[in-house]
Amino acid sequence: MLIRSPQQLNNLPNPSNIRFIRLQWLDFSSTLRSHVLPIPHLLSLTKSGRYHGLSGLNKLLIDSFVAYYDRDKTFTRDQSYRLPDFSSLRQAPSLPNHATVFCNFSEDISTRLPTSSPPPKISHLCPHLSLQNAVREAKEMSLKILVGFEIEPTRRPTSPTCGSRQAQLSGARNLEANLMLEIFSEITNDLHQSGVVQVQHFQAEATGNQFEIVTAPLPPLKAADALVVTREAIRRVCTRGGKWRCRFIRGGEMNGLYLNISVVSPAGITGREEYDGFLAGVLENVDELCALGMPRPESYKRTVSGGSCVGSFKAWGTQNREVFVRKKGMGFWEVRFLDHTAQVHLFLGPLMFAGLDGIRGTGS
């Protein structure tokens, strides 16, 4: 859907303050990339049926294209276009003059199209595509799927005088030390006011500088987009003033990123017994899903016993925090085998497909 008038911007909390739109996308390596467009230019593009074009290098797994160019001299000639999905239009948390919108990829359009022409096709390389297809398949099965995240960031002081705290899980003193209570309260307020996602709770975690923030359930695509925006809001607020850095990857060891997913019937009932097939489908395909959820070698430092992270065995349980999947209720699971290096759209789409196959009973 294109902005053809300022009307869609008026749905934002403070539309008169918006001066810039951040066209953003998560590339294959889970690096957030963006181009910032002034509002008049974006309106000019959409009114004339044009799309924002950029080099295909923006899809790379790495920031240097030298290795690719050595193999293929035509590699730098690629062109790509960003198709804004304005259902994801939100005011940017902590950036009052900016709004964000997530984009799909397209490669088969010209830079100018007649305004009456059909919308261009999303490229098969677009990370959003498999997730959009999985959502469509769930809808065809008359199932509603909701997703939320438990996000673990780590703070790091920029000065030795800021210091660290002793590990104290859920400790009030850890949360209140060095303005962290104020920082996470500000993050929560910014996310609520911008309409990105509702925060259910935040707390101090198991190391002195680690915290956790839990987001409310949303439809899958909105949840994945909200995760990306939430991480950026955490980084932005934590680094304000220059005293702290925020990391989601610390010392070669991944902070946790846990995905809560539920299946809801058309009547709004969660947890019909047959929905346990979702768990069976996920476990049947867990090897392939691990390649997407834990894509880097250091990700597997969390697959150890005694750390309450992922654990060493491909298994499921209920209250055991050292299994790949934890069943929290009928049709309600916590997926633990992913971290912040995962491209969340690329992971969540196949995860849903595997679970839906299990509900249909098409798996073994």
UniProtKB/TrEMBL annotation:
TM stretches of this protein? none
Is Ligase included in the keywords of this UniProt record? yes
Question: Ligase: present as a keyword of the record?
Answer: yes
Query: Which InterPro entries is this protein grouped with?
Result: Gln_synth/guanido_kin_cat_dom (IPR014746), Gln_synth_cat_dom (IPR008146)
Name the keywords, alphabetized: Ligase
Q: Supply the Pfam families for this chain.
A: Gln-synt_C
Give the superkingdom in one word. Answer: Eukaryota
Identify the residues that the record assigns to the GS catalytic domain, covering every copy.
127-364
Q: Which GO terms describe its molecular function?
A: glutamine synthetase activity
Q: Which PANTHER family match?
A: GAMMA-GLUTAMYLPUTRESCINE SYNTHETASE, TYPE-1 GLUTAMINE SYNTHETASE 1
Q: Which family does it belong to?
A: Belongs to the glutamine synthetase family.
Q: What is this protein called?
A: GS catalytic domain-containing protein
